[in-house]
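Q: Fold this one first, please.
A: Sequence and structure below.
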Amino acid sequence: MKTRPSDASVDDFLARVGNERRRRDALAVLALMKRVTGEEPVMWGDSIVGFGSYHYRYASGREGDWPLAGFSPRKRALTVYIMSGFAKHDQLLSRLGKHATGKSCLYINRLEDVDMEVLRELVECSVAEVSARYAVDA
């Protein structure tokens, strides 16, 4: 896997986010994820801010390491990685506010359009589920 933790500065990365609103939103999610995980942020690759890590192994034999929680202030949307997926989170998603989802990606255009307490709960549930399922490295 090409996306790995690095020694790059999270602060420098976030300072380079060109869109002021996206930068503010990223800083708010940074604080939320620090509180939820109790971990310090680490750059994964050149655009993902991750917290903690876990080791996965699929039935196919594919395996690797990935952040327990993470986000990326992408140009089109703030992407929050919900590694547990969304199958068990319909009720939370219905209360979250304006968003879109991919397999494990939660896309938020404006953080002001979502309920931050629901977002916190969603991240907490994901962290708990992934921690119970995989070997977690704190």
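Q: Good. Now the second chain.
A: Here it is, same layout.
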Amino acid sequence: MSEGNNEQKRGKVPIARKIHLKSLMLANAAKKLEKEKNERDIERNRVLKDTVPQLNTSSLSVQELQNMCKQFQQTIDGVDAERYDVEAKVSKNRNEIESLTQKVLDLKGKFKRPTLRRVRVSADEMLGALAETTYKTSLDLRSNLKSVKKEDEKEHKQAEVHDWRKNVEAMSGMEGRKKKFDSGAPPQ
């Protein structure tokens, strides 16, 4: 039992301690980022010294400076062309890889499922999304349906009763049957 109590005591870390540890971790991360940045700068300077020689432009004439600029421009154009070619190859390879992976998935019969996120939606919002409407619908749908249904039944019964009483004499005999046949109403 004493081991269980020790584990419980170790598990509880005061908020002040958590904040202190977090600030120490952030400070350590900031130091490492600064160190990485300095190392990258040193490496970049070293590579530039190795690849680009120092130029003494004070002793050169205008014509020599113009020739040097033209050479630099040609070099830049060549590098840009190479960069464009490499980017084109990379994008072509990437598209080919995607199409091949899609073919493999099709052959296996397994498809990638997108990662779904949980979204909290109220019942009104769900009904609105399902109905694709912007207004809020009430959840009391049964009472609305019943009231509409009762009104429709009353109107329907009144219309039948009214038509029946009006047409009793007109529908009697052979002429009435002929009228029903012509109007498309089923005989009674």
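Q: Anything worth noting on the second one?
A: Residues 124 and 139 are 7 Å apart (CA to CA).
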